[in-house]
Amino acid sequence: MVVPSLKLQDLIEEIRGAKTQAQEREVIQKECAHIRASFRDGDPLHRHRQLAKLLYVHMLGYPAHFGQMECLKLIASPRFTDKRVGYLGAMLLLDERQDAHLLITNSIKNDLSQGIQAVQGLALCTLSTVGSAEMCWDLATEVEKLLLQPGSYVRKKAVLTAVHMIRKVPELSNIFLPPCAQLQEHQPRGEGYPAALKHFRKVVPQLVQILRTLVMTGYSTEHSISGVSDPFLQVQILRLLRILGRNHEESSETMNDLLAQVATNTDTSRNAGNAVLFETVLTIMDTRSAAGLSSPTLARYVALTSLLRMVQSDHSAVQRHRPTVVECLREPDASLSRRALELSLALVNSSNVRAMTQELQSFLESCPPDLRADCASGILLAAERFAPTKRWHIDTILRVLTTAGTHVRDDAVANLTQLIGGAQELHAYSVRRLYSALAEDISQQPLVQVAAWCIGEYGDLLLEGSCEETEPLQVKEEEVLALLEKVLQSHMSLPATRGYALTALMKLSTRLRGDNNDRCPFTIPGSTQRDTPIFHLLRAAILEKMPLVERGGTQDEEAKESKEAQLSEAPCSFCPLPQASKLLDLLDLLDSSSGAAQPPPPLEPSPGGTLGHLLDLPCASPAPASVPNLRVFEREGLQLNLSFVRPPETPALLLITVTAVNTSGADVTHFVCQAAVPKSCQLQLQAPSGDTVPAQGGLPVTQLLRIFNPNKAPLRLKLRLTYHHLGQSVQEIFEVNNLPAETWQ
């Protein structure tokens, strides 16, 4: 019994269903035998079906050379279904090394002369794929006629075929030059291929107009890539203009204004824009452009951008160009000075931190306002990472606060107070420097806050006058108090600044030796008891110097966790129980109306104890349930971790702390984290601790999310991150679906 031939779809299914290679070969051998028999029988109705199956077998890697002559028969057929498969088979089975491909020349010539666009397109595709030099000579005239067809379908394929012909036979370029000039009028996308400078310099104005349309108004939204309108076409036109404008003054003058527009209006935050800008700079440098346009500004910008990308891979090589980079900081062009600032900050290391910081501080004094925040933050981060001594670190931060205090990061005040508190040998030096700076200017709010804090903590050292590292400074108690009162009364002082000044006045009341304690705003009703020794003892205990707080991301978290554990065990967290009892004895003496002392009431370990209410200090509370932390994002050294806390008194409330850590070698700037939750929940985003994540595991950026979930619905979180890193603008949107069940159940 003869097995009938399979259809193409059935053949594909049977081959894919073969479990072994031997089964696949058996299926293909049987079907190839049927295909050969069909070719021998000369069945014209099913020849194209048999050839289609053979082409599939050929794509699987099996021999199919016996179908070459069948391709020629199908191409010569008047039926379109036959021609389509025949031309496809010719492109797959024929090439220039076989003489059989020359036999289809007459068929292609006849099909090109027809008026059917689909058939002409098939013939042009085959000619541009397997056309040899002999075929190009024979069919060049027919292709030339099709270059000016009104329909774009055939004209585009004719242009590609003409390019193939010119590559095969360069002498044919003279035939295609006149049609190419007319193509600029018919097709504004400029599909011609340049072959002769003299001829194509005549169409420079048209090329300029095409490129201006793309840059200024955009041409087609379907060709836009990352907001840049058809960057591939822009690059090709710029390359052509560079060739046409080289050593030709007239062409260069025509394109001068356009090149300036491209360089100014191209968005360089994406790779597509950088590619267009790079070709623009090459064109400017390679043509006889105007003096202002050919200035090294654009070349320097591209050079700085390239160095910024290279600084992470070869830092020492980029260091050799440090003097040139520093010179670019003074450039009047804002984009150039910004790029030079980014590269200068990336070049700072432990060996050049003094010199580079001095240059950056000089630039900070005269830089434009829009660069001051980035420059100030960069100097503070560099000083924090590479400071040679604590005194140099303090001097650097003070100079930044004095020059651009309103532009520094939010955590600058906390960092400086922590730095000063940890340098006990520099307490006298720091308080004198800050007092002098505060006396000169009280408009820089971060500087005023640090100065007020330092005066409140170490005001007694300011009055002693025994600091060998500074010039002799004689300060009176009245002058210090008057300066702090001036800060309190100033209209420029923020509420936080007034809080620092008020705290400083209270603390000075325990450190001053004169009769100025009346200025202290800390009073207890009953002025007759304020001057008693008991009152001074209580005030000294409350307003003593701040203890030193250790820094470090993981250490801080561990210390915080241990402190929370202590809160759950101790009756009150601010002092041991025996000292608290003695303090209550003193308070009872103050409150007693008679001279006899009453026995103290028993101290209750409840959160609402007398001492906690009196001083408004946090007392013991049940420890919140432990929820494991979760890492939700990691890219190029930037990590985003979530930590969770559910207050026992408000079970429906979830506190999420978002912590951003940067372990790469470059800072992450302009960091913004946004979040969204399901409609059944309410979300409140607190302000982040900063917008710059320092490199190499520096101080992390944290942000608190407060989520109220009264229905205890399953919680999902959608985050959007935007930041600048390694010279690129990054935006990431992702959803967190694996939150621990403890966060919502």
Automatic annotation (TrEMBL):
<comment type="similarity">
    <text>Belongs to the adaptor complexes large subunit family.</text>
</comment>
<dbReference type="GO" id="GO:0006886">
    <property type="term" value="P:intracellular protein transport"/>
</dbReference>
<dbReference type="GO" id="GO:0030121">
    <property type="term" value="C:AP-1 adaptor complex"/>
</dbReference>
<keyword id="KW-0968">Cytoplasmic vesicle</keyword>
<dbReference type="GO" id="GO:0016192">
    <property type="term" value="P:vesicle-mediated transport"/>
</dbReference>
<dbReference type="InterPro" id="IPR016024">
    <property type="entry name" value="ARM-type_fold"/>
</dbReference>
<dbReference type="InterPro" id="IPR002553">
    <property type="entry name" value="Clathrin/coatomer_adapt-like_N"/>
</dbReference>
<dbReference type="Pfam" id="PF02883">
    <property type="entry name" value="Alpha_adaptinC2"/>
</dbReference>
<keyword id="KW-0653">Protein transport</keyword>
<protein>
    <recommendedName>
        <fullName>AP-1 complex subunit gamma</fullName>
    </recommendedName>
</protein>
<feature type="domain" description="GAE">
    <location>
        <begin position="625"/>
        <end position="740"/>
    </location>
</feature>
<keyword id="KW-0472">Membrane</keyword>
<feature type="region of interest" description="Disordered">
    <location>
        <begin position="594"/>
        <end position="615"/>
    </location>
</feature>
<dbReference type="InterPro" id="IPR008153">
    <property type="entry name" value="GAE_dom"/>
</dbReference>
<dbReference type="InterPro" id="IPR011989">
    <property type="entry name" value="ARM-like"/>
</dbReference>
<dbReference type="Pfam" id="PF01602">
    <property type="entry name" value="Adaptin_N"/>
</dbReference>
<dbReference type="InterPro" id="IPR013041">
    <property type="entry name" value="Clathrin_app_Ig-like_sf"/>
</dbReference>
<dbReference type="InterPro" id="IPR017107">
    <property type="entry name" value="AP1_complex_gsu"/>
</dbReference>
<dbReference type="InterPro" id="IPR050840">
    <property type="entry name" value="Adaptor_Complx_Large_Subunit"/>
</dbReference>
<keyword id="KW-0333">Golgi apparatus</keyword>
<dbReference type="InterPro" id="IPR008152">
    <property type="entry name" value="Clathrin_a/b/g-adaptin_app_Ig"/>
</dbReference>
<keyword id="KW-0813">Transport</keyword>
